[in-house]
């Protein structure tokens, strides 16, 4: 079971209302949010940040944002967030060929140079120590403006929080997320790991 037990979705009315956002993105309210409800100010602030980060104000599509989240979560090793990110990418219209070949984004023809620059940025920004450098900056500026770069780093930073939250909590992964992860990531080694409900 998880480090802390998720609370019932009806525990906090304001969180429940805000969490309707996840019915669109994932098809369910994630256990991570249900756990945050132990301190409703955290769950509400997190959902509002998530909504702000995932809003599209430039050319960074909803699907690309979720692929950025996947690369970030892959870099940190959070299986829970990998599954959620690939499920949301699927639900937000990522091309089938991209979903099937996300591990090969650097070389697969389904990805554009602009997408590769964004995904390499996600990888570099998610590593410890951080490896964002002048080359990453130059490649980003070839394809994206500063507002779009801010949107990307918002996604990377949001998932930095989620990766630490869910890996530390051992958050139990939901069936829908498992289904997407097994479909797109199972052939390349994805498994529930500590998120199978029996970690602690």
Automatic annotation (TrEMBL):
Gene3D superfamilies for this protein: AhpD-like
Domain of life: Bacteria
Domain Carboxymuconolactone decarboxylase-like: 40-120
PANTHER family named in the record: CARBOXYMUCONOLACTONE DECARBOXYLASE-LIKE DOMAIN-CONTAINING PROTEIN (PTHR35446:SF2), SI:CH211-175M2.5 (PTHR35446)
Protein name: Carboxymuconolactone decarboxylase family protein
């Amino acid at each position: 079971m998880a480090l802390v037990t998720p609370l019932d979705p009806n525990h906090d009315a304001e969180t429940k209302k805000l969490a309707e956002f996840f019915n669109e993105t994932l098809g369910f309210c994630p256990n991570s949010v249900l756990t945050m409800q132990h301190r409703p100010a955290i769950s509400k602030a997190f959902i509002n940040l998530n909504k702000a980060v995932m809003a599209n104000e430039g050319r960074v599509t909803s699907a690309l944002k979720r692929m950025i989240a996947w690369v970030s979560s892959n870099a940190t090793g959070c299986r829970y967030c990998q599954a959620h990110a690939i499920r949301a990418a699927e639900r937000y219209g990522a091309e089938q060929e991209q979903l099937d070949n996300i591990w090969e984004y650097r070389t697969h023809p389904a990805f554009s140079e602009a997408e590769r620059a964004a995904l390499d940025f996600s990888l570099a920004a998610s590593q410890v120590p951080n490896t964002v450098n002048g080359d990453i900056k130059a490649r980003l500026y070839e394809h994206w403006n500063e507002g779009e770069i801010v949107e990307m780093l918002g996604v990377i930073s949001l998932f930095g929080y989620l990766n630490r939250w869910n890996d530390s909590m051992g958050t139990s992964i939901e069936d829908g997320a498992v289904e997407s992860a097994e479909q797109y990531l199972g052939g390349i080694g994805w498994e529930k790991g500590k998120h199978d409900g029996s970690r602690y």
